[in-house]
Amino acid sequence: MPEGPSLVLLKEDILQFRRKKVMAAGGNAAIDVQQLEGRQLLEIRTWGKQLFLLFSGKITIRIHLLMFGSYSINERIRLKRSVKLELHFNTGTLYFYTCSVKEMEPGWETTYDWNADLLSKKWAPRAARAKLKKIPETLVCDALLDQQIFSGSGNIVKNEVLFRIFLHPESTLGAIPPQTFTLLIREAKQYCYDFLAWKREGTLKKHWQIIRKKKCPRCDLAVQKKYCGKTRRRTFFCKNCQEKYV
């Protein structure tokens, strides 16, 4: 599943279509795609793993790439992928595949906590801390995937941040020492910006410290792989140098 930094890059890629008029629209999404024809793409926003296309006529379409979604510009991918939405502009064509496409109701902006987006200028670490303090029994591996707290964080961010701050994924939030708690919030944001920079360079995987590794780069001991917490997402960790607090 694409994480927040990948959505920021998606937005950058398609900014070329901002202020352009949709000449034709298609795809098998469960929305009225024809209503987009003749509309101008006024604005493009992201919130975590979600992309919002704001058109004239007060129409907003949300794109969520889910686990296997993708997009392309100008060249349609000839694979066994469903074209959910295609937008033809006079300067090119934008395709979205195997994703969720939803038309938002008026007032949709108020249903999102824009302060929770790790890559937003509105990111509010104090608000994140307050939310975490209200769920002391939650495992930190689940908290890092909670989009209402860390919007844009995904499994890569979760694994790498916990390794970076020497914290075991099955630690409960209420037991984590104050200094480590502060590091958790700070590094969740920092890793997203590192992720974004490495993704731009095409070097993201070269910087992975714990994901898919067989040995811990710090301890030279076997890396543990487990499906942790309520989210049951694949988790890599070193039980020697990542402290567990319960």
Automatic annotation (TrEMBL):
Highest taxon above the source species: Bacteria
Boundaries of every FPG-type domain copy: 209-243
One Gene Ontology molecular-function label: endonuclease activity
Reactions listed under catalytic activity: Hydrolysis of DNA containing ring-opened 7-methylguanine residues, releasing 2,6-diamino-4-hydroxy-5-(N-methyl)formamidopyrimidine
SUPFAM superfamilies in the cross-refs: N-terminal domain of MutM-like DNA repair proteins, S13-like H2TH domain
Formamidopyrimidine-DNA glycosylase catalytic domain ranges (all copies): 2-86
UniProt entry keywords in alphabetical sequence: DNA damage, DNA repair, DNA-binding, Endonuclease, Glycosidase, Hydrolase, Lyase, Metal-binding, Multifunctional enzyme, Nuclease, Zinc, Zinc-finger
Family per record: Belongs to the FPG family.
The protein's name in its UniProt record: Endonuclease
